[in-house]
């Protein structure tokens, strides 16, 4: 009986470890998606900032 209890405890411990690894994998996959989105939108953000700066400069020059 004692051997059976040890085996059940070991199986339960392994199942808990598997659950933890699955959750960690899901977190990493979510972070990867986040980085991919940021990688896609970063040039758009920079381009928008540059265009805004150029428009501001031209606006100031037009007022002079």
Helices, strands, pairings?
Layout: H1 2-63
Q: How would you summarize what this structure contains?
A:
By secondary structure, the chain is an all-alpha fold. It has one helix at residues 2-63.
Largest sheet: none
How would you classify the helix and strand content by structural class? mainly alpha
Percent of residues in beta strands = under 5%
Number of separate helices? 1
Bulk shape: rod-shaped
Short key terms for the protein model shown above:
1 helix; 64 residues
Structure overview:
This protein is mostly helical. It has one helix at 2-63. The N and C termini lie far apart (93 Å). The relative contact order is 0.05. The model has no long low-confidence stretch (mean pLDDT 94).
């Amino acid at each position: 009986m004692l051997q059976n209890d040890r085996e059940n405890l070991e199986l339960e411990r392994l199942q808990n470890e598997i659950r933890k690894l699955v959750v960690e994998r899901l977190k990493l996959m979510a972070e990867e998606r986040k980085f991919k989105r940021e990688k896609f939108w970063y040039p758009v953000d920079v381009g928008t900032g540059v265009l805004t700066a150029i428009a501001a400069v031209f606006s100031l020059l037009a007022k002079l």
